[in-house]
Description:
The protein is mostly helical. Helices cover about 75% and strands about 0% of the residues.
Amino acid sequence: QYKAAEYAKAAKSFEKLNREKNKMGQLSMYYLADCHLKAGKKRSARNAFANASRLNYDKKIQEESLWNYAKLSYELRFDRDAIDALQKINPRSPNYAEAQGLMGDIFLNTRDYQKAMRIIERMPTKTTKIKQTYQKVTYYRGVQLAADGDLEGAKKLFYKSLDNDYDTRTKALAYYGLGEIAHQQKRFKESNQHMTKFLNYAKSLNNLPDAASVNTANYTVGYNYLKQKKYNSALGYFQDAVAGIKRNARYISNKYVKTQVLGDATLRAGDALFKKHKYDKAISYYNEAINKKYSGYVYALYQKAIIEGLRGNPTEQILALERLTEQYPNSEYTDDALLSLGNVYQDIGRTNQATAAFKKLVRNFKGKSTLVNQGLLKLGLIAYNSGDLHQAIKYYKDIFKNNPAPREAEGALAALEEIYVDDLGQPDDYLKFRESLGGYDVTTASRDSINFKAAESQFEIGNYQKAVKKYNEYIAKFPNGRHLIAAYFHRGESYTALKKYADALRDYEFVVSKGHSRFYEKALRKAAIISYNYEKNFEKAYQFYSKWEAVAGTEESKFEAQLGTLRSAYRTGRTDAVYSMANKVAGNPRASQDQIAAANFYLGKMAFDKKDYDRAIASFNKVIKNSNNENTAEARFSIAYIYYVRRDLSVAENAAMNAIKENSSYQVWVAKSGLLLADIYVEQSNYFDARALLEGMISSYEGDNEVKEQVAEAKRKLAALNDKENQNNSLTNPNSDILELDETGN
Length: 746
């Protein structure tokens, strides 16, 4: 059949010998591969060459099969398999030089940069091309680690990339990566040093990614200076970022850069000008943010109102503040605006309007804002000045129901003392109220402050072990102390610094249990993070994140809380909360592509679990479009699995193959996709490719702990396939004809 060029018939005959572990079996696989090549079936040819290369009866056939398997794996983009095969090419082989060249190309094209690094590092000698490749793969692996949150690991690899100075673009990007990490870790001077080096190199480069460009570097440097209160320097970089993004808008495809970075840089330029008292120029930036409705434009409205007040234009200030409070009643700046509005009305003598603003603040934001007590102080003063002493007393006493800061408590007590003692002549009533508070009598207050200060002094210098001891003493002595909430919060912060997370969580929970205070939001955030990341108590994490999302004081913190609520909701199986938060995250202009992908990943997972496969596929495709991390790998596998479950085997086969090719950085998902593909082949009665795939997995992964479960599963599937073939294989059926092969090849 083979000699007669009847390759399809010959292939069927050769396939029946695929389980023969002898020279005949090796030759049959070699010829089978040739049959498949002549029929244009490169994937099947690749599998046959793999089988022949694993048998060593004919060394020449083995070497040729290995080389052909490596080349086909390279051509078909099975990069992991190609690398494994190319490494086995004998240095004395005439194919060795070409194999090294192919391996260098794969290292750059594959996403399995970790494996590429290991292979290059084991090479006894390295060509210049391999060294250049090493510079790039260490950088790319650093990017992967940074995306997965391992900033320290990413940092080490960026430095390792810089140690191999061959390619200017990669060198520049490594400095950018170091600058971003330093910025995230609040090392602003160090960040600027790295970003300055990046900018020096970037000026001569024109092929940089949108998210690591001159524009985004200017934005980061501007923030670094802003955090250091160097407003003139910050202004210049923010202005450069704004101008650069506008100038190159048609060339920028990254939506996050075109919207979020541009909008935020515009606002921060306004802030820098505001800090320098250049109000006219600041307003021009704020107006741009408002007119284009950039993320944070409500903040710009509030800043405009503040500027009008500083300019001495109370009427314009009132109009701006009323617009904000009426049009955006749920904004994080509405409480500030109401307090400012009341103050302006009070300053111009419009007491009724001032009272209305302060009452609205207290009514709408009780338990939500730290400004409520300031509103009560103002209402108390207005009532006192109007002669309504009993109403004033009520306002001042209400302050103590809202966890007042020490200064707020002192102000309220001073006002109450004046009313009770000077105006009403009822000193006993005043002392009785003060004593009812606990910790506010005169002698106790003095001792309270001294003991608290002793603990605070240790906390402020970073001596956390001693701080914990002193806070313990304070809490024991003053269980109802004036600084009790602060003591618990700062003790929690000390425990966090000491990595005693369970103790820290208890303190943060205490602060949260006391209701709204100046530490409430911070305690919610810390409690949520510890519950999720360290305690793995996702139920608690959900409660803390969702409460934080409701009271978050800035857009940034609200968005962070939404991300946490989303993750926790998925972990606790809250379908409605997942859909709600995922849509909030995906629709938030602050969301990066990775964050949009994360939101869609959870939507996809939830739909997948509910067998709502159409919705799952739509969400997973958005994950693939917007990210390249482990979630992306799982999304690719899940799509293939869905088509398999639907018995759409042809689509499932292509999707599984694509997952194997594209997921090379994530070995578990490569292995899972391989197992799925083997199942698909079996259902298609393609036992040969199923066997080749399973045997290849076992050979490649044996001894690898990361995928030991998948290897065990591959062995089970191979045993089941053997049983199935034993029933059909003509070689094991005594009633069948015996197939013979001319081993001479003639």
